Amino acid sequence: DSETGEILHISNQSDSEDVSSARDIIEKGGIPGAASVMTRKSACPKEGFDPKIPCVSDWLYFIETALNGKIVKVDGVLGRYRKHSQGTSQKTYELLEESLRVMDRVVEKHPEHKWLESCCRKGIARYLMGEAFRQLEKMDLKTSSELATRASKLNKKSFFRAIALVCYLFFKLPLLAKILIPPLSKFKYTIRRISK
């Protein structure tokens, strides 16, 4: 945290967080510690970053690079990221539609990969559910419920349906939300890991 200097999270602490393919980048919502990524020029998209995706174009760029080459993880702490009020991690809801557009662009630009459509649907569901959780933390219960419902329609797993139901209950019973959401927030990364 920029204000306190506290370490909030260390990424890639379990095998489930590792990214080894374009499928992983899509379904896991990106590459943890993406500023530490190095790419071979031969694997990079010929057109570079997509100007139709102005803020989250790195996600599309990494997916396309992975479609052209191999991903290798180098163990160790390779970077330190600063969380602050103006960072993109604080603007995820504002960037929601652009982030979802990335999935459309992937399918549109790479029709030769038939598996991308179902994979991108899973990626969208995961992204929506993550944003639903962030909105819960902000106590925007209506938005959280709407996002979780959208996610559960894309991913029919019982986990997604259960989270959508919880978000709906919190929306309908705000006092319950006020009591339960603060302790739930402490388990954010655990919930993320079991949702895969």
Q: Can you walk through the features of this model?
A:
- The chain has 196 residues and is mostly helical.
- It has 8 helices and no strands.
- Helix 3 runs antiparallel to helix 4 and helix 4 runs antiparallel to helix 5.
- The longest helix has 22 residues.
- The radius of gyration is 17 Å and the shape is globular.
Strand content of the residues, in percent?
Answer: under 5%
Q: Given the structure, what is the number of helices?
A: 8
Class by alpha and beta content? mainly alpha
Task: Kindly report the average pLDDT value.
Answer: 86
Total strand count, please? 0
Distance between the termini: 27 Å
Helix content: 40-55%
Main sheet record: none
> Shape, please?
globular
Q: What does the radius of gyration come to?
A: 17 Å
N-to-C series of helices and strands: HHHHHHHH
Q: Spans of 5+ residues with little confidence (pLDDT < 50)?
A: none
